[in-house]
Amino acid sequence: MDLSIVILNYKNKNLAKELLKNLVELNLPYQHEIIVVDNASYDGIKEIVEEKFPQVKFIQSHKNGGFAYGNNLGIKQAQGKYIMIMNPDLAILSDAIDILYKYMEDNIDVALAGPRLINADKSVQSSCTTLPDWRLPMYRRTSLGDTKAGRRWLDKYLMKNLDHYKNNYVPALFGACLIFRSDALDKVGLLDERYFMYLEDLDWSRRFWQNGYKVAYVGKAEIIHLHRRQSAAQGLIKTLFSKTARNHIISFVKYLLKFKGQKLPRIS
């Protein structure tokens, strides 16, 4: 098996249906499989897969264990040399998967890669980052990010100066769409299920670097991501009452504690 594609669904059956239709119509030129994991949403995606896409494997999780937990269910069942994890809110209107696949074939030192994600209006999303320090939730999740110091810090964190139309090694990638070598998991391990939501991708990227692999942003591969941030910058009080913002902060504390005292990996 050349490629396994894992799609994690949580109350997004219509988006998942469109992505599945999109993938089938691509007629990928290598042996591949598609796996859909439903993270205990029971929103009708099982029936859609069975009726419309019988060639697709379906996994029903009986609990919503979060992003890492759900994706790991699919990864454990995947048979491909390469595995891609995808959010349902993607649209692939180009040869991005072929570009990513060929990039991995041609760059054997890279074990984790991600495409250039764009909005529906073609503007570039920030989907690669530096490895952040303790200021991340303060500037990312509160109005302090609108200050001069906050904007300067966020621009560096989100790698705004990077040419996002070229391929580059990067410290970390966002998890909306990632491709990786399945055999690298023997050293790196699966996504860390201690994170319910947020920071799993940052943690994983860091572990790929720590284990001697390179992480790459493939700017030549373009995928539309119909993403809406669930907890945008806001006042401190509102942040404390926002469930998604609290999840982000809790995950970041777990991340800091996990890597406390460890040197940052060398990115090159």
Number of helices: 10
End-to-end separation: 31 Å
- Largest beta-sheet characterization: 9 strands, mixed
Radius of gyration: 18 Å
Strand fraction band? 15-25%
Q: Characterize the overall form.
A: globular
Mean pLDDT: 91
Structural domains: how many: 2
- Weakly predicted, low-confidence segments: 230-237
Order of helices and strands: EHEHEHEEHEEHHEEEHHEHH
Helix content: 25-40%
Structural class: alpha/beta
The counted number of beta strands is 11
Summary tags:
two-stranded antiparallel ribbon; 35% helix; 10 helices; alpha/beta; 11 strands; Spore Coat Polysaccharide Biosynthesis Protein SpsA, Chain A; 2 domains
Brief overview:
The chain is of the alpha/beta class and 268 residues long. It has helices spanning 13-26, 45-52, 67-77, 96-106, 136-140, 148-157, 185-188, 200-210, 236-240, 243-258; strands spanning 3-9, 32-39, 57-61, 82-86, 90-91, 110-118, 128-129, 167-169, 172-173, 177-181, 214-225. It is built from 10 helices and 11 strands.
Give a written overview of the molecule.
This protein is 35% helix and 22% strand. The protein folds into two domains: 88 residues, Alpha-Beta Complex (Spore Coat Polysaccharide Biosynthesis Protein SpsA, Chain A); 171 residues, no CATH class. It has ten helices and eleven strands. Strand 1, helix 1 and strand 2 form a beta-alpha-beta unit. The strands form two sheets. Strands 1, 2, 3, 4, 5, 6, 8, 10 and 11 form a nine-stranded mixed beta sheet that branches. About 3% of the residues have low confidence. The two termini are 31 Å apart. It has 268 residues and is α/β, with parallel strands linked by helices.
